[in-house]
Design brief:
Blueprint: E1 5-15, E2 19-20, E3 23-24, H1 25-35, E4 40-45, E5 48-49, E6 57-58, E7 69-76, H2 78-88, E8 97-104
Antiparallel strand pairs: 1-7, 1-8, 2-3, 4-7, 5-6
Length: 112
């Protein structure tokens, strides 16, 4: 079995109403990641959560002013993730970023 290559998963935590040049910040991050050829980027919409403020955000009571959690997940080699995060640093000031060591298996499918 292919053991893959070392990688890093960067999870950037923000809100769906965070903006960059008038468009969603999560979209800006994904488009920049694609433009730089990172291995992968995914946006996950949270249905409930809280951050440093301690305020609970939930879809169950969603209103037009509610800020919902969003996670942007990036995958690539550790050096490429570090360099990308350095470049977008000004965009994500104050956003928690979680880094995890992973193994990247390209095109691998689990045996059935």
């Amino acid at each position: 079995m292919d053991t893959g290559e070392p990688g890093t998963r960067a999870s950037i935590h923000l809100h769906d109403d965070d903006r960059c040049h008038g468009k969603p910040l999560f979209s800006e991050i994904v488009h920049r990641a694609a433009g730089e050829g990172l291995t992968g980027a995914t946006v996950l919409h949270g249905c409930e959560g809280y951050g440093t403020s301690g305020a609970l955000h939930t879809e169950r009571l969603v209103s037009s002013w509610e800020r919902m959690p969003v996670e942007v997940v990036l995958i690539d080699r550790p050096d490429r993730i570090a360099a990308f995060l350095d470049r977008i640093g000004p965009l994500i000031t104050g956003c928690p970023v979680v880094l995890s060591e992973v193994r990247i298996l390209r095109g691998a499918r689990p045996a059935e």
